[in-house]
Amino acid sequence: MEVCIRPIQGFMKSSTNKVQDEASREAARRQHEAIDRLRYDLKNKRLVLITGAGVTLSATADSSRQALSRITWTGLIRDGLDYLVQEGHVDRLNRRTRRAYDALDEQDMDDLLDAASILRSQLDRNDLFPTWLESVFGSLYSLVRNTALLDAIKALHEHGVMLLTTNYDDLLERHCDIPRIGRSNRDNIFKFRRRDLDGVFHIHGSYHDPHEVVLDTTDYYQVQHSDDVQDMLKAFFHDKIILFVGCGSGLEDPNFDRLLHWASEQHKNIPNRHCLLVRDGDNTNYTPLVRLKYGPNYDDLAPWLLNLIHGEDSFQRLDQSV
Nearest-CA neighbor of 287 among 304, 267, 306? Predict the structure, then answer.
């Protein structure tokens, strides 16, 4: 019987490998096509970058790639709670404060937003929201240790890419030497949308404009019901190609998670054209976006972006993976 079984097993293994190779080639083909679309839209000035917390985390990480804890979402909320406690404005044993701390350990989106709401209400009650934001982000640019990703984004901007961010910091505008654009000035929103005004549009606010910062569910409601911002985002989703950079984890960046939830609802019947950059092996998946793998390491992201401008006719790494 073994004489008969072994050839069958060999045939099944060969067939399985053939199917897997074919699937890998098909995945690579889709990646190539998506990259070609990005290059085409870059050439025709239709490419939009929306950056998330990962850009700031990468730029400010230390030599061992350890990120600043206060820049992650949970770290930011914990920093605010610690600030209130250490400055003597709230008691750590206060029922609501304790509930906020406990929520941070749950790592659930709703719990994190509940903690953010508690933090925001306590900061506002003590008139400390602007002061705390300044303490977190005011000196952040001086802590930039790795400029490769910021340099790549700057190069793309110089080739006509529009820049938007869900971050509160000012790293992009300072590195690219362009102004920030907020939600409060309607004329500036229209000018930015028409490309009559250059800058970094802060979808969820900047620490320089505390009244625009989206931190809790009430703030999200205001953005979701801002016709000017929603109309601009709808126009970008319909008429341009959006590339999400540094937006790998919704738990680290719930601003991004909320934005993608909105996009998913808006584009149920539209083919997925907009892209999310992820590391090899990263399982992050958002329904309305095409996942593009930039490499196994975070350091591969900046060269990948530069390849959109200067790179090879094809991405050799993708070819070698099949």
Answer: 267
What's the pLDDT tens digit per position in 94-121? Answer: 999 999 999 998 877 788 889 999 999 9
* Separation of alpha carbons 94 and 245, rounded Å: 39
Residues 298 and 166 in one domain: yes
Tell whether 210 is covered by a domain.
Answer: yes
Query: What would the two tokens of residue 203 be?
Result: 């979808």
Which one of 107, 140, 173 terminates a domain?
A: 140
**Would you say residue 207 lies in a domain?**
yes
Which residue would you say has higher pLDDT here, 9 or 32? 32
Q: Look up the pTM and report it.
A: 0.85
In terms of domains, do 247 and 111 share one? no
Question: DSSP string of 58-106?
Answer: HHH--TT-PPPGGGSHHHHHHHHHHHHHHTTSS-TTSHHHHHHHHHHTT
Residue 321 has pLDDT above 60, yes or no: no
Decide: residue 245, CB within 10 A, 0-12 exposed, 13-18 middle, 19+ buried: buried
Residue 2 within any structural domain of the chain: no
pLDDT tens-digit readout, 254-266: 656 666 676 667 6
The structural domain count of the chain equals: 2
Residue 292 · residue 6 · CB < 8 Å: no
d(C-alpha 114, C-alpha 99), whole Å: 9
CA distance 244 to 277: 6
The residue out of 90, 108, 140 marking a domain boundary is 140
Q: Rounded CA gap, 133 and 197, in Å?
A: 26
Structural domain that includes position 76:
69-140
Structure tokens at 93: 């044993």
- If asked whether residues 132 and 172 sit together in one domain, one would say no
Same domain, 116 and 157: no
| Strand partners for 290 | 275
Note whether 136 and 70 are within 8 A (CB): yes
Residues 6+ apart with CB under 8 A from 178: 157, 163, 198, 199, 200
